[in-house]
């Protein structure tokens, strides 16, 4: 008997549902029939409201006795974000790497002093693509080995390892997706950071080094990755990634803006705070990103299936267009992944999209709210 691809996919989802569909696996991209199989097996967790800013955002010890480093087990999830990996290894996040949006916002504020509206926008935009809106859970890496068969394309397998949202080309310490492993620490990439820090920062990573490294990474992907892409939202996260180590990995008592390479390796590779580490003094977000961009501005675009074939994409938001970034994300990314949600799935998506919009309002962006599934 010859099975059609659609029937085979539906049978695979039924098998997965019988064996308990992973509570944190993304539903994005599943067909109506596939969702009808999976959703009844999941317990709906209405998304709670996100937390507000810290009452006290002064610097304080975060590598404390209540948050000791414990190396992750082989079954624990870790992924492309060194900050979240570190938070999980110190218990600010669930040590297994399976998290909720509220948990992540609380953790990045408490341990790094990430500014509230910025934290909310990053977390909800990431969660809407990579998380499970029904169960309100997300993996900070990939799905575990015991979650059953992957959902058929175009579904997004859960977690931050998913290409071109949080993770993307030109990472500082992870290889481009085209070359295979886009989520584990890559020593060759880190040596590029160290080399350019020695050349332009006297061995420290700072804003000058960040701009030089961003230029190097762009040109490296341009000339070696035929699928290289640098459009929103990755354009935004790439430049944010350039300054995050300066803003969050430098001890909060140190006002120099210079990141030591041993400390950098601790975060990027070992997923641990240095001893006696204090968080930034005062809430902070992407300060310095404009400096890096002005030293090496990038027009959104992508290679066209061959190296050095970069073509600008006029439909992509630029760094100076936060409202276009927001509307494109909702109308293109979310609508394409969830074209016709119903029931509790539609309810959960709408609530999380409301939280995302409220983050843009709190950030001072006068954006027009988008309702992809109606009001």
UniProtKB/TrEMBL annotation:
Molecular functions (GO terms): metal ion binding; peroxidase activity
Keyword vocabulary terms for this entry: Heme, Iron, Metal-binding, Oxidoreductase, Peroxidase, Signal
PROSITE patterns assigned: HEME_HALOPEROXIDASE
InterPro entries assigned: Chloroperoxidase (IPR000028), Chloroperoxidase-like_sf (IPR036851)
Domain Heme haloperoxidase family profile as annotated: residue spans: 65-293
Signal peptide: 1-20
KW Phosphoprotein (keyword) present: no
Cofactors named for this entry: heme b
Family: Belongs to the chloroperoxidase family.
Protein name as annotated: Heme-thiolate peroxidase
